[in-house]
Amino acid sequence: MNRNKIIDSVVDNIKTIIGALLIAVLIRSFIFQPFYIPSSSMEPTLLIGDRIFVSKYTYGFSRHSFPFSPNLFDERIFYKKPKQGDLVVFKTPADNRTDYIKRLIGLPGDEIQFVEGEIFINGEKIIRKKINSIDMVRCGKFSFKVNAYEETLPNGIKHTAVYNSSGTLQNTKKFIIPKKHFFLLGDNRDCSKDSRYLESVGYVNFVNLVGKAQVIFFSNDTVKSRLLKFWNLKESFRSDRLFKKIK
């Protein structure tokens, strides 16, 4: 092979790699992005070790839709308002870099308050029904007993939330959600840093929304075994969560 053919071959390979990278960036920015769940704040809905696909187009696009959050524009384009009950990935307001996933509970203008351990939205108590099939969840590497409930939001969306049976957050002030902001909670209510903590998370601006969690495409129990330890994968792999739709 002469020198010109070698150069042409190298150039073709570089073009192929660049093209593949551009396609990957476009898919990641505009269609779906994979995320890994590292914490137990969304148990029992999402477990440590779940890998999920998040739709990037559901709420339109902002600078946080793109890698490294370039300052391309200040608002959202093709904006579609999220719904109560959505599982939302967002950039934390504290640093605009860290990705969190929580359940959207309050919309702009809503008033949220915990009273005697129950959630009130605009003065109306969320309807909830006790579930007996869940009695333990994780909080990091530890576990605790919980009271589990099926909660029904004002729009009729149902989800499961758990509360520490030995003591849970009882009463809060009213959280009044500003315009273009949202109030989000972890389903594992006593093991979640979320909108109740104004100094670290607080109300989430609509620009910070990254996308909506749609499906678990793979899951292994990384508390028991790291994925790279393939000889333990059989023990840690959760086959029942493979391509499971997220609710």
Tell me what you see in this structure.
With 247 residues, the protein is mainly beta. It has 2 domains: 1-30; 33-245, Umud Fragment, subunit A (Ribbon). It is 13% helix and 34% strand. It has 2 helices and 16 strands. Strands 1, 2, 3, 4, 13, 14, 15 and 16 form an 8-stranded antiparallel beta sheet that branches. It has a 4-stranded antiparallel beta sheet with strand order 7-6-5-12, with no helix packed on it. Strands 8, 9, 10 and 11 form a 4-stranded antiparallel beta sheet that branches. It is globular, with a radius of gyration of 21 Å.
Structural features:
247 residues; 8-stranded antiparallel sheet; 4-stranded antiparallel sheet; mainly beta; single chain; 2 domains
Task: State the gist of this model.
With 247 residues, this protein is mainly beta.
Write the layout of secondary structure elements.
Blueprint: H1 3-30, E1 32-36, E2 50-55, E3 87-91, E4 99-106, E5 111-115, E6 118-121, E7 124-125, E8 127-131, E9 136-139, E10 142-152, E11 158-164, E12 175-176, E13 181-185, E14 204-205, E15 209-219, H2 233-236, E16 244-245
Shape: globular
Q: How confident is the prediction overall: mean pLDDT? A: 91
Multimeric state of these chains? single chain
CATH domain class name of the largest domain: Mainly Beta
Stretches with pLDDT under 50, minimum 5 residues: none
Helix-and-strand structural type = mainly beta
Tally of strands = 16
Compute the number of structural domains. Answer: 2
> What kind of sheet is the major sheet?
8 strands, antiparallel
SSE order: HEEEEEEEEEEEEEEEHE
CATH topology of the largest domain: Umud Fragment, subunit A
N- to C-terminal separation? 57 Å
Helix amount, in percent?
A: 10-25%
Question: How does CATH name the architecture of the largest domain?
Answer: Ribbon
- Strand percent estimate: 25-35%
SS element count, helices? 2
